[in-house]
Amino acid sequence: MATTVSQTAFSSLKLDPALLQNLEDLGYQQMRPIQAQSLPAIIEGKDVIGQAKTGSGKTAAFALGLLHHLDVKRFRVQHLVLCPTRELADQVAKEIRQLARAIHNIKVLTLCGGMPFGPQVGSLEHGAHIVVGTPGRIEEHIRKNNLPLKDITGFVLDEADRMLDMGFQDSLESIVNALPKQRQTLLFSATYPENIEKLAAWVTNKPVRVEVQESDVHSQIKQLFYRLQDNKQRMTALSLLLKKEKPESSIVFCNTKREAQEIADELRSQGFSAVALHGDLEQRQRDQTLVRFANKSASIMVATDVAARGLDIESVDAVFNYHLARDPEVHVHRVGRTGRGDKKGKAFSFYTDKEGYKLVALEETLSVDATAQKLPDFSVLDKPAFKAPMATLQIDGGKKQKVRPGDILGALTGKNGIAGKQVGKISVLDYCAYVAVERDAAKPALKKLSEGKLKGRSFRARRIRG
After folding, report:
1. How many Å apart are CA 132 and CA 111, to the nearest integer?
2. Could you say which of 192, 301, 307, 369 has the lowest number of CB atoms within 10 Å?
3. Percent of the chain at pLDDT above 70?
């Protein structure tokens, strides 16, 4: 009896057999909606405009298309992928490499701002098949004739709306003008406002439009709304709910960079482990913030929408809307950070009477129950703030010094060291590394790293506070 292949199975695609085999090895069987809708057109070589948010599976969609069309024997830059941030570029490059495991000798190169320029020039001289990078740095390499474009057949704009939000319009125009006219262009954007519509019309040719509806906030998320007397009550409400709920990880969304920093500072003064994420941070500060939040040495991240977009942050226990989002679509993005997969999540939203129109828009557009809830009793404020379970140690040595996670784990757990179970996430960047250890083990762990050696060398180590 013949077996039928599901229309949403990866095996139903006319993909390179090596890619299909690797997908099977990785356990990828059924396509997600954005993949099922866009991949057939991408494989056919058509331009595609895809509207889907972070976490929808769009990276695999365009990555598989690029790899399918790649001629690995031609050691030239054939595909260019633009991302708004270095973190997203690193994630995209990592996923492309994973999906390309079955293709031998493929080289994927990342070129991002905030990293030394010289080593990137050297890497480009050695050649690559696929380049993933941020607009500003890519534009700079093109301007200095380091990045050859004549062989490019595939061009991807990932999180296009975020790139425009961050002010990359001029860089994008400069890059597009330098690309070959004959190419396949894939544009992905979480939202589709007028400026994205104009950009899409300019960079694509007879595109196939694909849209994955994400307006239904996951049923795993419990949404609670709190009507406040005035703006001054927001911090009190936030402290009350944090102390009552005690979420292990939470994101507080607010509307301005200044507010994000002020809220994080205030929470820290109350004893919470809080970090801020906004556009005024230097790359090093941004790296530290994301590492600390991911490794559970900071339990609260206060962020602006622009700073948090494009980050593949694992599901958090709770989301707090310090102010209601400016439109329902942004509210969906915020709230969607919690309750991912099979996990349950909570979203707490604060509003004053002045924001009533935003509440009406949410009720009408998303059909949420916005009944005003009662805040916990003020006596809860007398309880101590909860501390994050981990602490982060920074080591002044990274990939460029050949430091690997195993070296750090070995140094920590060697003779007179701490137990392996007390070590959390280890993140090795180019020039430094971060390791999470249980809070109680931070002192002996730091002593062990400071007095011991990695790769036969002594590296400076310190605890990240704040």
Report:
1. 6
2. 369
3. 94
The answer to whether the CB of 383 falls within 8 A of the CB of 356 is no
Nearest in space to 302 (alpha carbons), one of 266, 339, 270, 264 = 264
* Exposure b/e, 421-439, CB count within 10 A at least 16 = b: ebbbbbbbbeebbbbbbbb
Q: Taking the CB of residue 304, how many other CB atoms lie within 10 A of it? A: 21
Q: Which residue did the predictor score with more confidence, 363 or 122?
A: 122
Question: Contact at 8 Å (CB) between 137 and 172?
Answer: no
Residue 37 is assigned to a structural domain of this protein: yes
CA distance between the termini of the chain: 65
User: How many folded domains does the chain comprise?
Assistant: 3
Instruction: Output the pTM of the full model.
Output: 0.63
Residue 187 has a pLDDT of 97
Q: Which pLDDT score, from 0 to 100, does residue 310 have?
A: 62
Please return the burial class of 451, using the count of CB atoms within 10 Å of its CB with bins 0-12, 13-18 and 19+: exposed
Residue 213's pLDDT band (boundaries 50, 70, 90)?
Answer: low
Q: Which of 287, 277, 285, 273 is nearest to 308 (CA)?
A: 277
CATH number for the domain that contains residue 401? 3.30.70.330
Q: Is 115 part of any domain?
A: yes
Letter string b/e over residues 248-274, b meaning 16 or more CB atoms within 10 A of that residue's CB = ebbbbbbbebebbbebbeebbeeebbb
